[in-house]
Design goal:
The complex is a heterodimer. Chain A is of the alpha/beta class. Helices cover 39% and strands 24% of the residues of chain A. The N and C termini of chain A lie far apart (42 Å). Chain B has one domain: MetI-like fold, CATH 1.10.3720.10. The longest helix of chain B is centred in the C-terminal third of the chain and has 38 residues. The chains are: A alpha/beta, B mainly alpha. At the A-B interface, β6 and α3 of A face α8 and α9 of B.
Chain lengths: 274, 261
């Protein structure tokens, strides 16, 4: 009990500081086949340094749009997105992006894939090799350096994509349903690893998922989306210990209570006709 | 078990070949006139005569150098144009209908024009082959360069990549797969270009050997020339496969992957 009082205190201290990423009344309109489409609107959201914020909602409700704007892949049509108090510029260098399909380069082996950001940085070969060795240990790919992506299992490919992301050490990680294609047990294992890793490396994370259980299990805070247009219905603190045991969560009454609560928010939007 | 069944397959293949050849040999002069279908023993004899006298090599080298020359000429220009148009969206948009129109034309129909322009020497066959190969390689390269996913490029740019990084680390390597598909498709076509060119007008090459034998009503010679062409095509294809495997080692691993449907 005291444990997570501490945590909420810690979160409060963090939130007293300026947010790392701030969405201010953000909206984004696309034109799809000549028709205007409001992807998201009225988004006010703060992401604080060191927290894992999960965004959960039905597919196509604009969760990914927020990540894209935080990365500077495109600008909002209304409002503004700030990173460290400054409007986000194209290709925000402070963020790393991980998507559902891992986008590994099939012609490069694991070593080559992980090393690519370092090559872009222009580091000498020996230094790259050393860093890649370390990164493979970090994500649990030791011994797989010479394998090509199509020889790896789904989980291994995720680890490789993660190591590549960590290679250039961005302070914020944007994750867009990275584990959606994995089977349930492997997904849980990756959830455990990613939460542990991000906490250890003190990364700020925006994690998009359509799986409520995953959102609560991984997140320090959880934003529930409904769509379309995508709006944030509720943002909650996840009242679970920072070093929670994800494997045992389903027995935790607080976890069950929160997922049940959030389910009531999320459920109506599932059958809604857009 | 695996090797046993493999041996079995080869035994059956040999038996099938023997069956066809013996059937051919026996029916020749009985079921069909030898004038039209010749006979395997005679064809083999003719082939060996040409082999020993060096006729095969003389004509083979001519045909091969035309095919290889046209292959490289068309392949290199096709690759460069493919990369260029793949990156320059406006030029591609403007040229698209013209390229497609020209692509629809069966390229061997250009042969008479090329005879007018370049005469009946080796260069005419090289240009004809190059034209055929160009389109195959160009279209594949173009598709390959365009097929690079925007997400992939965005991810790289977030890592701080500039245009040069994107081109050399993603666009070109990813196009290589397509380029090789184009090149491999081109090999039999290069041979076709070279031989069609010879059939139309020449005094050298395997195509000439073929046309000349037919002109003298020498069916045996025709078959022997066809076999020479077949053998050449077989080795060319094997060579391209070998090069492809060396250039794209990640492809090699596709076979020993677990299958999932």
């Amino acid at each position: 009990m005291t444990e997570y009082k501490d945590q909420s205190k810690m979160m409060e201290t963090a939130r007293a500081a300026d947010p790392l990423i701030a969405f201010r009344n953000v909206g984004k309109k696309f034109v799809v086949k000549g028709e205007p489409l409001q992807a998201v609107q009225n988004i006010d959201l703060d992401v604080y340094a060191g927290e894992i914020l999960t965004l959960v909602g039905p597919s196509g409700c604009g969760k990914s749009t927020l990540l894209n704007m935080a990365a500077g892949l495109f600008a909002p049509t209304e409002g503004e997105v700030f990173y460290r108090g400054k409007p986000v510029q194209p290709y925000n260098p402070a963020v790393g992006y991980m998507t559902q399909s891992d986008h590994l380069l099939p012609w490069r082996d694991v070593t080559g894939n992980i090393g690519i950001p370092l090559e872009i940085k222009g580091l000498p070969k020996s230094e790259i090799a050393d860093s890649v060795e370390d990164l493979m240990d970090t994500v649990g790919l030791t011994g797989f350096g010479k394998s090509y992506p199509n020889q790896l299992s789904g989980g291994m490919r995720k680890r490789c994509a993660l190591a590549r992301l960590l290679a250039y050490n961005p302070e914020t990680l944007l994750m867009d349903e990275p584990f959606a294609a994995l089977d349930a047990l492997l997904r849980m294992r990756m959830q455990i690893e990613i939460r542990e890793l991000c906490r250890r490396l003190k990364k700020t994370v925006m994690f998009v998922t359509h799986d409520l259980d995953e959102a609560v299990a991984i997140g320090d805070r959880c934003a529930v989306f409904t769509g379309r247009p995508g709006t944030i219905e509720r943002i909650v603190d996840v009242p679970l210990a920072p070093d929670r045991d994800i494997l045992q969560l389903r027995k935790d009454p607080k976890y069950r209570e929160l997922t049940a609560d959030l389910w009531d928010v999320l459920a109506p939007s599932i059958t809604e006709d857009h | 078990m695996e090797t046993l069944s493999k041996n079995r397959i080869w035994t059956l293949r040999a038996a099938f070949l023997a069956f066809v050849l013996i059937g051919w040999e026996l029916s020749s002069g009985r079921l069909a006139s030898e004038f039209f279908i010749s006979r395997p023993t005679a064809i083999a004899e003719q082939f060996f005569v040409w082999l020993v006298s060096g006729t095969i090599f003389y004509h083979g080298v001519i045909t091969l150098s035309q095919a290889v020359g046209g292959f490289f000429l068309g392949g290199i220009i096709g690759m460069c144009m493919g990369v260029w148009l793949g990156r320059a969206a406006l030029v591609a948009e403007v040229l698209d209908p013209f390229i497609m129109m020209f692509y629809s034309l069966p390229k061997v129909a250009l042969a008479p024009l090329f005879v007018l322009w370049f005469g009946i020497g080796m260069d005419m066959k090289i240009y004809l082959t190059a034209t055929i190969v160009f389109f195959l390689v160009f279209l594949n390269t173009y598709t390959g360069v365009r097929a690079v996913s925007r997400e992939q490029i965005a991810i790289l740019k977030l890592m701080g990549a500039n245009e040069r990084h994107v081109l050399f680390k993603v666009v070109l390597p990813s196009a290589i797969t397509w380029v090789f598909t184009g090149l491999r498709l081109s090999v039999p076509y290069a041979l076709i270009g070279s031989i069609v060119g010879e059939l139309i007008a020449s005094n050298r090459g395997l195509g000439y050997l073929l046309a000349n034998s037919a002109g003298q009503f020498d069916t045996t010679g025709v078959f022997a020339a066809l076999i020479s062409i077949m053998i050449m095509a077989f080795f060319l294809n094997a060579l391209v496969k070998l090069v492809e495997r060396k250039a794209m080692p990640w492809r090699d691993t596709d076979a020993d992957r677990e299958m999932s449907i």
